[in-house]
Amino acid sequence: MEYIFHILILVSIYGILALAQNLVMGGAGLLTIAGAAFYGIGAYAAAILATKFGFNIFTTLIIAPLVAGLIALMVGSTFARFRDDYFMLATLGFLMIFNTVVRNWESFTGGSYGIAGIPKPHVFGFVFDTPLSFVFLAVVVLLIVTAITYFISRSSFGRVLNAIREDEDALAIFGYKTSTYKLMAFSIGAALTAWGGVLFASYLTFIDSRLFTVNESILLWAMIILGGIARNRGALLGAFLLITVPEALRFIGFPVDFAALLRQCIYGLLLVFLMLYRPKGILGKYKL
Amino acid sequence: MIFWQLTLYAISVGMFFSVLAMGWGLILRSAKFFNLAYGGAFLVGGYMMFLFYRMWNVHFVFSILLSLFGSGLYMLLSYKFIFSVLLRRKAKSLILLIASFGLLTATSAILGMIFGNQSTLIARHLSDIYTVNVFGAVLNLAQVVAIVFVPVLIFVFAYIRSSTRFGRAMRAIEDDSEVAELVGIPKDKTLLQIFFISGTLAGLGGIAEGFDLGLIPTSGLIIILPTIVATVVGGMQSFWGGILGAFILAIAQQLTIVFFGGSWVQAVPFVILIIMLLLRPQGILKR
Amino acid sequence: MKNIIKTKQLVKHFGGVSAVDHLSITIPKGQITGLVGPNGSGKTTLINLLSGFFSHDKGAILFSDTERRKILPWENKIYNITRTFQQIRLFDQMTVLDNMLVVLTERNPFWSLFEKHNKYHIKQAEDILGHLGLYEKRFHNAGDLSYGQRKLLEIGRVLSMDADTILFDEPFAGLFPEMIKQIEGIIKELKQKGKTIVLVEHNMAIIRSLCDYVIVMDAGKMLAEGSPEKVLSEKIVLEAYLGE
């Protein structure tokens, strides 16, 4: 039973991440690989605030998105001018810098030793330390993120993002400051992604620099594209499938490291096959 | 003296990235997409060299030839079965980018499964890692070979590009592949050759890295960013642009090591990229 | 005098070629100005400069006598100017209705987050679509429309923008006669509403019947200007067209 709770928590966390990044990738059509960086920023913000300053994880649920959003706002203000391949390249560079900083700034992030002893959230004397209670928390956050992403994609803002994805120059002619829209989408995506990071840090109680590498971003890409890019329910479906199906590998009994590499290989090949045979993904309407 | 040492380091690193940028630029200019699978060819070359030379004790020359052939073949097959299909479909460059990223991820994962995640050095004999004293500066053999051998390679390529039939076909495709096809240049065949050559250049980089610093499965991704930055900064439409960019990058990296420490080297390409995209998006050299 | 467009010594280079070469023109308010000239004479470039699609290299563009050093596309909303494209540029993977709504809704990124398209937006869009005969197609993707319908939808977007100045870049190219009639009618209606219209067109019959004023361009320079009858009978204009 605990195992099922564990899977549910992971599905919720990755559902949050995929929804948030889909807002940037699908909604605005900005191919970003920086997902793992904002995931990591959320996790580290929670971990550092909780272990060094004694914050409650619930408080960090409010602070971490602000931190991630602010960082996204800063780097994004230069990135928002770039397009397509160059945007991807800039976000890749950002992710690598994030990894470098986390690895080298040991006094703050713990470097490769990581940060241990991250507390579970508690509110009014109730501690979310049982798996079931944590499932509850994760699902609630997932529902909030789902509501937000649906709200955005159905607003005028969401429609403008789609138009940017289709033809940014033509849209600008109609009086839109497209770079501001891109910047906002990037920052909102980053802030929502940070929630996934907070939950993850608090659930695992331990994080280190190897958890938030480009492989995580590739996994997010695979989830979003498999489910159907630019569709919120696609991101959820992708997260569900790519968390549950590879769990089968666990029962075959590969060593942990090997299984991780095997999963990574599967995600990579999945992306190749999706691009070749079904770039729309399972539920997709939007053709990449 | 430190200045002299740093200069030589910068030159050897510049040579290393020149090779990589040359090969990557070939694909960028002809097939017009960001091919991240190039990092895969880099790994395949390096790890095949490790396999043949270090593990199976094959003769050095044969090992190199086999590894280069292997990395070229990797690239050729990736074109044949993935990229040519997408290109024929006139897919957006982002689709090709995602596919190549997927291929790179899968390749480094597979190599990680076979060879393990630890750093892998190719050197077999002690003599492989001898250091050489060049007027007071200390370089290892891989660096010396790079400084001596790469300029030759660059000029051979410049000659092939400017004066052979293949070079002309290549340039025609870079200009406009549809027009090139109309005037009877076999586009598909030329692209196959370009991908193969590009793969061997990546493989050469991988072998050099394996002798110099050692390979890890993620190095395929780690080198791809500086490679792209070198190509783009110099001016991606120009053959010499990539080489210029490689040296700019190398010098910036050495300066960073001196002033900020070696752990920040990975940040250099990113910073250069941002500065360049803001100031001069078309790169330094035109075609 | 609101919204009169002038250019002063306007220059735009592409590589070594001057697409627009020290061009000084005045576009009269409330009239239909035809922009004619051989291919490559810089008409589309001029439209691109006026709408901020490209930035100009030298010279000045004046809107109602305020000089704009740099034309930023998003300011088109403020200066009340809009355009169509020669190569149709729709938001292909959005519905026809969304293509219209995106022009109608809030421009401020922050407020647009909290705005769902309102009833009157939908009504406005549907009215225009009805007027154009695209109402039935409103839930189709713009990319699935026929060529003529796509041209119409572009004009629909322009109509919903309700700008004072409208730049049409070859709106009739490749269309059937009935559709040309329809679009001619729309342009005439716009004129009656007091809009300033710039029309790039090759078909002299259309120019004669629609335009109040004609500017002839060749190699980025102005060759002649005046009423259609006068300009189109001038010798240099005929030479430029016939290449004699």
TrEMBL record, chain B:
Subcellular location(s) of the protein: Cell membrane
Molecular function in Gene Ontology: transmembrane transporter activity
Keyword 4Fe-4S: no
Isomerase listed as a keyword: no
Regions that span the bilayer: 6-26, 33-53, 59-82, 94-115, 135-160, 190-208, 239-257, 263-279
Name of one Pfam family that matches: BPD_transp_2
Record keywords: Amino-acid transport, Cell membrane, Membrane, Transmembrane, Transmembrane helix, Transport
One annotated Gene Ontology cellular component of this protein: plasma membrane
GO BP annotations, alphabetical order: amino acid transport
Topology in the lipid bilayer: Multi-pass membrane protein
Source species, domain of life: Bacteria
Family membership noted in the UniProt record: Belongs to the binding-protein-dependent transport system permease family. LivHM subfamily.
Record-given protein name: Branched-chain amino acid ABC transporter permease
From TrEMBL, chain C:
Swiss-Prot/TrEMBL keywords: ATP-binding, Nucleotide-binding, Transport
A GO molecular function held by the record: ATP binding
PROSITE patterns given in the database record: ABC_TRANSPORTER_1, ABC_TRANSPORTER_2
A Pfam cross-reference name: ABC_tran
GO CC entries: plasma membrane
Segments forming domain ABC transporter: 5-244
InterPro entries membership: AAA+_ATPase, ABC_AA/LPS_Transport, ABC_transporter-like_ATP-bd, ABC_transporter-like_CS, P-loop_NTPase
Organism: Candidatus Nomurabacteria bacterium RIFCSPLOWO2_01_FULL_41_12
Name the record gives this protein: ABC transporter domain-containing protein
ATP-binding listed as a keyword: yes
